[in-house]
Design a protein that fits this description.
The structure holds 2 protein chains of 2 kinds. By secondary structure, chain A is an alpha/beta fold. Chain A contains 9 helices and 27 strands. Chain A folds into 3 domains: 3-109 and 239-306, FAD/NAD(P)-binding domain; 123-236, FAD/NAD(P)-binding domain (3-Layer(bba) Sandwich), CATH 3.50.50; 326-428, Enolase-like, domain 1, CATH 3.30.390. Chain A has helices at 11-23, 45-49, 65-68, 129-138, 152-163, 184-196, 292-306, 380-389, 407-411; strands spanning 3-7, 28-32, 71-74, 79-83, 88-91, 96-98, 101-104, 108-110, 123-124, 144-148, 167-171, 199-202, 207-211, 218-221, 226-228, 231-234, 238-240, 256-257, 269-271, 276-280, 285-287, 319-324, 327-333, 346-352, 357-364, 367-374, 421-422. In chain A, the strands form 7 sheets. Chain A has a 5-stranded parallel sheet with strand order 3-2-1-7-19. In chain A, helix 5 (152-163) links the parallel strand 10 and strand 11. Chain A is globular, with a radius of gyration of 23 Å. Chain B folds into 2 domains: 1-58 and 129-140, Alpha-Beta Plaits, CATH 3.30.70; 61-118, Alpha-Beta Plaits (2-Layer Sandwich). Chain B has a two-stranded antiparallel sheet. In chain B, strands 2-3 form a two-stranded antiparallel ribbon. A two-stranded antiparallel ribbon of chain B has the order 4-5. Classes of the chains: A alpha/beta, B alpha+beta.
Chain lengths: 429, 150
């Protein structure tokens, strides 16, 4: 019997516990979180803030999940460091806990820029249910908010605040919103949709100061402009929670480095989710891909391997799916090509501005590397599969953007041979 | 566990299955009632053609479903007892992560209702409506085949 310790009670941590239990019904599993909450759907806190989802609807697993799977849960316990030589972890209160195999699934936390006033009351990150509750609590007395950052989280929080009748300005340093997932054309379509629904977007400017004594009064931009507001939400990206392993001897860059088995450079320690760096198929190198589906995928592989399997991860593809006010957008892999590298790539584009449909595929030597889809997202899963399996698209390239493109166009190129289509004349099972 | 199989030599591409599927998932459960419903009932199955042959395509109810992995609302779950992927509409927020990752392109995003449309094998009925509707018996509903590979 082993002792599995999992730091992190979220996407990656839960996927790992479920995978371990799939293979090993008896060993001890301990799951640790510094939050005071059962595992919940972190990505849904904006829906909760908007008042669209009740609290019980954002629980990720039922309350008896831990008991049913014989898992010990430590809530509200902060781990200070991992000691890889002694195979134990140390908590904030200096108590220790030994492990045979450890998973670090500590996720990430919001980055706060070092500007004047950033520590004031009324400046929030947006990462936890606690953040959402605090914001929500202020809404009765707050009618104006500034969101710093035009990424996925910033826009989601702006959307939620708008739905709660708050005046919202989103202040974006780049020349476009969603610069980490969309190209400029797609970003325009979405920005239009946000603005026509009452969310102000200010591009190409950065906040230099948050003004107010006690309560927040305004933010000051680098252009000198001042916007009045009584609440500030900072959504300028996240950084992986790697502090606890920094002295432990594991290799790390921005995130903890993992091999294709989700194992770190110390054999008894694995990592998964937002905290780790793993191989990215379209980039051809390791990177942090901080999204929910990848955290689950990696957590599952880590869990199976921790329990003795030898399952290899093919690697991740950076991707994201969003929808604002009825306009959906999905981005897969390489979504933007630098001007100077244009020649090496090929772009297939379909644009119908009126219908708000935009589709772009990025290829290199007839290998699909990425896609941006707005308005019409139905074939996204097929594109993702083509990207992941690195299928040469030469034979069907002309069909890729057609309205009737579908599974059959790629079926014969896939690694998997399905058995549900029977040709009676040939084989009968 | 029962699975859907398709005899490609028999499929005429008549789309009777698509039709029956839309009706079976409509409120009124009947063709004439269906066309007057507020949100149009969409088929969970699509008959696609390639090289003169027709292939009905719908959700595989994968054993390791990518859509369930990707579902950030835990609205999609794998029911191992029945070998099916189930969807809880009350939990769904319409984020389309499932559409983003389904390797068969088997989910249709219904942008109006914000619900992913996918085959539920008519779970409340004795057999899927498409099986009953197919005039040539090309859709086969039977215990899972074990493929013998050399
Ligand atoms: C508002 C919002 C919207 C989002 N929307 C999307 C979306 O639409 N699509 C998408 O794919 N992704 C989205 N994401 C990102 C997604 O939530 C993350 O990728 C995902 O949560 C990563 O899971 P994880 O398990 O790696 O880490 P996390 O979810 O960050 O969980 C980390 C866990 O580790 C614990 N922990 C951390 N440090 C310690 C410590 N020192 N001691 C003890 N416990 C510790 C925490 O308590 C927590 O349980 C969104 C995120 C936010 C905040
Ligand atoms: S929707 Fe797609 S990924 Fe999900 S079970 Fe069906 S075929 Fe598999």
């Amino acid at each position: 019997m082993k002792q599995f310790v999992i730091i992190g009670n979220s996407a990656a941590g839960i996927a790992a516990t479920e995978a371990i239990r799939q293979r090993d019904k008896t060993s001890k599993i301990i799951v640790i979180s510094d939050e005071d909450y059962y595992a919940y759907c972190r990505c849904l806190i904006s829906y909760y803030l908007a008042g669209e989802l009740k609290e019980e609807m954002i629980l990720y697993r039922s309350k008896d999940f831990y008991e049913n799977n014989n898992i010990e849960l430590y809530l509200n316990r902060r781990v200070l460091r991992v000691d890889a030589k002694k195979n134990h972890i140390v908590f904030e209160d200096k108590s220790k806990l030994g492990f045979d195999v450890l998973l670090v699934a500590t996720g990430a936390r919001p980055k706060f820029p070092e500007i004047k006033g950033i520590k004031k009351n009324g400046v929030f990150g947006f990462r936890t249910i606690k953040d959402a509750k605090q914001l929500s609590g202020l809404l009765p007395v707050t009618k104006t908010a500034c969101v710093l950052g035009g990424g996925l989280v910033g826009l989601k929080v702006a959307d939620a605040l708008r739905k709660r009748n708050t005046e919202v300005k989103v202040i974006v340093k780049s020349k476009q919103i969603l610069s980490q997932m969309l190209d400029i054309e797609a970003a325009h379509l979405l920005q239009e949709r946000l603005e026509s629904n009452g969310i102000d977007v200010i591009l190409g400017q950065d906040v230099t100061e948050i003004i107010g004594n006690g309560d927040i009064k305004a933010v000051k931009l680098d252009s000198g402009k001042i916007f009045g507001c009584s609440m500030v939400v900072v959504a300028k990206g996240v950084s992986p929670n790697i502090e606890i392993i920094k002295e432990a001897g594991l290799k790390f860059n921005e995130g903890i480095l993992c091999d294709n088995f989700m194992q770190t450079t110390v054999p008894s320690i694995y990592a998964a989710g937002d905290v780790c760096e793993s191989f990215d198929i379209t980039l051809g190198k390791t990177t942090v891909n901080a999204i929910w589906p990848i955290a689950v995928e990696q957590g599952r592989i880590a869990g199976l391997n921790m329990a003795g399997d030898k399952l290899e991860y093919v690697g991740s593809v950076g991707m994201n799916s969003i929808e604002f006010f009825g306009l959906p957008a999905i981005s897969l892999g390489v979504y933007k090509v630098k001007e100077e590298e244009r020649k090496a790539f090929e772009e297939l584009v379909y644009l119908d501005r009126k219908a708000k449909v935009y589709k772009k595929l990025v290829l290199k030597d007839d290998i699909l590397l990425g896609a941006v889809l707005v308005g019409d997202i139905k074939n996204s899963g097929l594109y993702l599969r083509i990207i992941k399996e690195r299928i040469k698209v030469s034979d069907f390239k002309h069909k890729l953007l057609r309205e009737n493109f579908g599974y059959l166009d790629i079926m014969h190129h896939l690694k998997e041979k399905e058995n549900l289509y029977i040709h009676r004349s040939k084989a009968y099972v | 566990m029962k699975q859907l199989y398709y005899d490609i030599e028999k499929c005429l591409g008549c789309k009777s299955c698509e039709f029956a599927c839309a009706v079976a998932h409509s409120k009124s459960q009947d063709l004439f009632g269906m066309i007057f419903e507020e949100s149009l009932s969409l088929p969970r199955k699509k008959v696609l053609s390639s090289k003169g042959k027709n292939y009905p395509v719908s959700c595989r109810h994968c054993k390791e479903p990518k859509c369930v992995e990707a579902c950030m609302a835990a609205a999609l779950v794998y029911d191992s007892q029945n070998g099916m992927v189930l969807h809880d509409e009350r939990r769904c927020v319409g984020c389309w992560n499932c559409v983003m990752v389904c390797p068969y392109g088997a989910i249709r995003p219904d942008l109006k209702t914000k619900i992913p449309i996918r085959c539920d094998r008519c779970k409340d009925k004795s057999e899927p409506a498409c099986v009953k509707a197919c005039p040539t018996g090309a859709i086969i509903w039977q215990e899972e085949l074990i493929l013998y590979t050399k």
